Automatic annotation (TrEMBL):
It comes from Lasallia pustulata. PANTHER family: SHORT CHAIN DEHYDROGENASE_REDUCTASE FAMILY PROTEIN, PUTATIVE (AFU_ORTHOLOGUE AFUA_3G09150)-RELATED, SHORT-CHAIN DEHYDROGENASES/REDUCTASES FAMILY MEMBER. GO terms for molecular function: oxidoreductase activity, acting on the CH-OH group of donors, NAD or NADP as acceptor; quinone binding. This is Short-chain dehydrogenase/reductase SDR. Belongs to the short-chain dehydrogenases/reductases (SDR) family. It holds the Pfam family adh_short_C2.
């Protein structure tokens, strides 16, 4: 099978000039790759992350790399904890005040690379505080983003949420995380039924173990086919683009395997 970089060509990405796009989780590897692609293709971005240093590095890269006469107007950055509804709401409202509209959103803020971020345990030993933390940082945080975005996005807008392959198959020792990813699929499908009246599309991308610094290698996934963050970002971009106008309510698995 060809890589996503071949399947999703640069011609797909040529329709973002002047579009206002939100990116939640912009400093994580997949969010960073998505942000850079959008900026290269002239989108106006409102990015957020809890990592101030990561946001500053994105801004420095933008200023140093891309020729743009109105750089400050093409990207605004905000430190946001997406597990706090008031911070998410303020970020989205400020984006509308700055740019006057929202055309799309990429929600990459969930804890994709979960290794070491919380203790794993069989369901019989799962602690209440671990359950609450995982649900808050993944499922509830994405709900806050979707809720705020759907209130202000333009008719015909597009939203992409980055999930994980656990939305298609569970795994031992990760009951809470699996619930988040299965729950995200259900939430998106419900939101699609509501948003279709405004021709708003919502999809999700479910990577396997992308090659990022906070995920260890897995024997269950062929290393050669393990997707790079940049490849996943191109699929996110395709789903955000007008070229995917007939695609909605779908979760796309990205794991380098020819079939499961």
């Amino acid at each position: 099978m060809g890589s996503l970089s071949r399947v999703v060509s640069d011609s797909t990405l040529s329709c973002f000039d002047g579009k206002v796009i939100l990116v939640a989780g912009a400093a994580c590897p997949i969010g960073l790759a998505t942000t850079k692609l959008l900026l290269k293709h002239c989108a106006k971005l409102s990015i957020c992350d809890s990592d101030q240093k990561g946001l500053d590095e994105i801004q420095s890269w933008f200023y140093d790399t891309l020729p743009c006469p109105d750089r400050d107007y093409h990207m605004m950055k905000t430190v946001v904890d997406v597990s706090k509804a008031d911070e998410v709401g303020a970020w989205v409202r400020n984006t509308v005040l700055t740019y006057g509209r929202i055309d799309g959103a990429a929600n990459v803020a969930g804890r994709i690379g979960r290794v070491g971020l919380w203790p794993t345990a069989p369901l019989s030993d799962l602690r209440d505080e671990t359950w609450d933390l995982v649900i808050a940082k993944n499922l509830t945080a994405t709900m806050y983003c979707l809720r705020a975005e759907l209130a202000d996005i333009q008719p015909g807008g597009n939203i992409v949420c980055v999930s994980a392959l656990l939305d298609q198959k569970g795994t031992g020792m990760e009951a809470a995380y699996s619930v988040c990813k299965y729950g995200l699929v259900g939430m998106i499908r419900s939101a699609v039924a509501e948003a279709s009246k405004k021709s708003i599309r919502i999809n999700s991308v479910a990577p396997g173990l992308a090659r990022v610094e906070n995920v260890v290698n897995s024997k269950s996934m062929p290393v050669e086919g393990t997707p790079q963050p940049e490849e996943i970002a191109k699929l996110v971009m395709f789903l955000l683009s007008e070229n995917a106008s007939c695609v909605t309510g779908t979760s796309f698995g990205v794991d380098g395997e020819p079939f499961r």
